[in-house]
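Readers outside the structure-tokenisation community will struggle with the description of the input data as it stands. For illustration, here is how one protein appears when written out as sequence plus structure tokens:
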Amino acid sequence: MKLLKDLSLGIKFSLVTALSLSVVFAVLITTIYYHQKEKRIAENDVRFFSQLSDLVSILDEQRKAQEEKAKQALVLAESLIRQQGQIIESDSLIDILVNNPLTNRKENLKINALYLGGKLLQGDSVMVDEFIKETGCVMTIGQQSPLGFVNIATSRVLTMSMRFVGTFTTHKPTLEAVNASMPYLGTLIGSVSKKIYTVNTKVLYTNKGSKIVLFASVFLQAEGTIQKNIISKRYLENGFSYLMSKSGTILFHPSSRAIGVDISQSIVYTDMIRNTAGLHKFFYTDNAGVPKYQYYTYYQPLDMFVSIVIPKKDLLDKPLAYFRNFLVGGAIF
């Protein structure tokens, strides 16, 4: 204290002025920093909401292209059947192994034998395989049964030696259209396969008036549009995008290990399922302790969420660190 009292008035004034200026500079730097932070957040929101909307537009174009392809494929599928004459329904019954949708158990179901061009239609693979070679689309034939419409012939393969024969049509809008003898065209997510596909249907009839359903399906592949815009694309340094079903299953993701994972119990999903209209942002910390921002929207035509995820360090920490160092350096020098 004595040393301070011994200082001249001029020196005291200089010290007070320097201290005051330091406080002013500190307040100014802090104000500028937080203003820049808010500005950066606002700019990022505009940028990534725009890119999210672009992703939705790309998916919408893909969906429309698939629907057009499914329309053309159904015309060919019906032509292949018509060329061989009418579907003949026999009084004799045959057994088909099905997965009972009521009990979820395997059992034999008795259905009337169907013939097309003199060949048994149930289990026939020649026509449906010819169809997939020509169109790249899946052809399936469903037959009315006591348990619902069961698939009796299809080019859709489950394993090398098994097909999706003996499965039932469970998609409600498709069933409603078929029961009303109306066509159906739509894009949906398989309840078992979790794959996105577009299906076009038409009701045909046997010689006895029983309903037969003809399906032409186009599956959304990871190659091409999805590969370029979802799987391979990066945002800033470590950001990425992914697609998730409304029920919480990851459909497409840059990491193959994430595909098929159910995140319906996560805080991310909880936030998303509450917001199915408009564009949204959610800040969270993942299981590895990494803070992240997620930009997302619900895409109703495909019944799924489209998301872009950016680590906070890429979005704010690194850019603001450069700015903070610049301010501090300027204040010192």
Remarks:
- The CA atoms of residues 183 and 202 lie 5 Å apart.
